[in-house]
Amino acid sequence: MVGATIRRATLALVVAVVAAACAHAPRREVVEPVARLDCDAAGRVLAEHPARPPPADGLRRVVTTPLSWLTIGAGYTADVVALALIGFVGGALVCTPVWAVEAALGGSGDVGGECIGGVSEAFWDQGELLGIGAGAARVTRAWRCQELRRGWAETLSVARCLADRSGPGDLARATSMLEPLQAPEAQRCLPMNRLTELDLLEQRLKDLHRGSPPEAWEVDELGPVLGPQPAEPPPQVD
């Protein structure tokens, strides 16, 4: 009985992991046109059927977003407590000789207390937080973000396709496609591997720009994704 339960739980976990991986992978409707450099067909899929977050993503964030903020708050609280403790311990170490002299002279200890207060305040004013809160914000940022990894992967894939093809207007369209990924919200939520991929692709576009003909940067009327506009028929002559 226990063994069967464990096997079912393991199978459910494997299925969940595989489903999550599939939810992040680019769709076949995008991958296949990109493979044959049909960037316009892939771009039309993005424009007409943009990738959406999984249905359960909203429910996930209802749980994970408050947990993220609680973790961040606990981290910054730990930062403050640690800094105060460091200041107090540092003050005690620095002011121990003052206490000893004051005790030998029969003092009340006020001077030693003021010394600890002054040193602790200096630690507080000049010291830096240990970074526990900032680290918690960084580690849990995915908890606060929409699940858009499939959309990001597809956007990068089509932009890379345009850079590979480098036809008329392609480089301009590729650059335009990357602009939403440069927004602060996207930068905050993009996984590290996608950020690296984005940086490399942006640098490649800059390199191509320097060595490409002007028509590669001319944007047609159909915008940054859909490709060149068909030529208009010649005017009718009466």
What this model shows, in words?
By secondary structure, this protein is an all-alpha fold. It folds into two domains: 100 residues, no CATH class; 75 residues, no CATH class. 71% of the residues lie in helices and 0% in strands. The chain starts with a helix and ends in a 27-residue tail after the last helix. The C terminus is likely disordered.
Entry keywords:
disordered C terminus; 71% helix; mainly alpha; 2 domains; 238 residues
What's a concise summary of this model?
By secondary structure, the chain is mainly alpha-helical. 71% of the residues lie in helices and 0% in strands.
How is this fold's topology laid out?
Elements: H1 2-24, H2 28-35, H3 39-48, H4 57-104, H5 110-126, H6 132-139, H7 141-144, H8 149-165, H9 170-178, H10 184-189, H11 192-211
Helix pairs in contact: 2-3, 2-8, 3-8, 4-5, 4-6, 8-9, 8-11, 9-11
